[in-house]
């Protein structure tokens, strides 16, 4: 899944003048489901609802697998994002990275306990 980049944003990028605001606008418009999930995780600390379709799952994977998208989202929300599988996203205040809740979320034990047969191919 590619981002839908308006010509004005592409021109800014070509001139080396792309702003975080422009980039985040492209992400929000191109990956609305992923934006919703990250927004919910930032507000609640975690989002664990499976995506309603493969297209939605693709948006979330695209957002969290891309270093530039993920770090822009982290800067925007002021949170560190952690990702366990095709739907479980944690959001942690930056000063809590390395803390007990963060370490528990990213632990191998937590990863194993979060697996189900339904999510095998996600």
Descriptive terms for the model:
122 residues; mainly alpha
Layout: helices, strands, pairs:
Layout: H1 7-14, H2 20-30, H3 32-44, E1 46-47, H4 54-65, H5 67-77, E2 79-83, E3 89-93, H6 100-105, H7 108-113
Antiparallel strand pairs: 1-3, 2-3
Helix pairs in contact: 2-3, 2-5, 3-4
Question: Would you write up a description of this structure?
Answer:
- The chain has 122 residues and is mainly alpha-helical.
- It has one domain (7-119).
- Helix content is 55%, strand content 10%.
- Strands 1-3-2 form a 3-stranded antiparallel sheet.
- Helix 2 packs across helix 3 (32-44), helix 2 (20-30) packs across helix 5 (67-77) and helix 3 (32-44) packs across helix 4.
- It is globular, with a radius of gyration of 15 Å.
Overview in brief:
The protein has 122 residues and is mainly alpha-helical.
């Amino acid at each position: 899944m590619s981002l839908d980049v308006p010509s004005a944003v592409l021109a800014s990028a070509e001139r080396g003048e792309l702003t975080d605001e422009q980039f985040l606008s492209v992400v929000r418009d191109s990956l609305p489901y992923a934006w919703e999930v990250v927004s919910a995780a930032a507000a609640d600390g975690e989002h664990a609802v499976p995506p309603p379709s493969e297209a939605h799952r693709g948006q979330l994977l695209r957002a969290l697998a891309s270093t530039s998208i993920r770090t822009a989202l982290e800067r925007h929300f002021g949170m560190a994002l952690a990702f366990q599988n095709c739907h479980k996203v944690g959001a942690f205040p930056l000063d809590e990275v390395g803390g007990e809740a963060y370490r528990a979320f990213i632990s191998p034990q937590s990863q194993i306990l979060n697996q189900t047969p339904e999510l095998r191919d996600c």
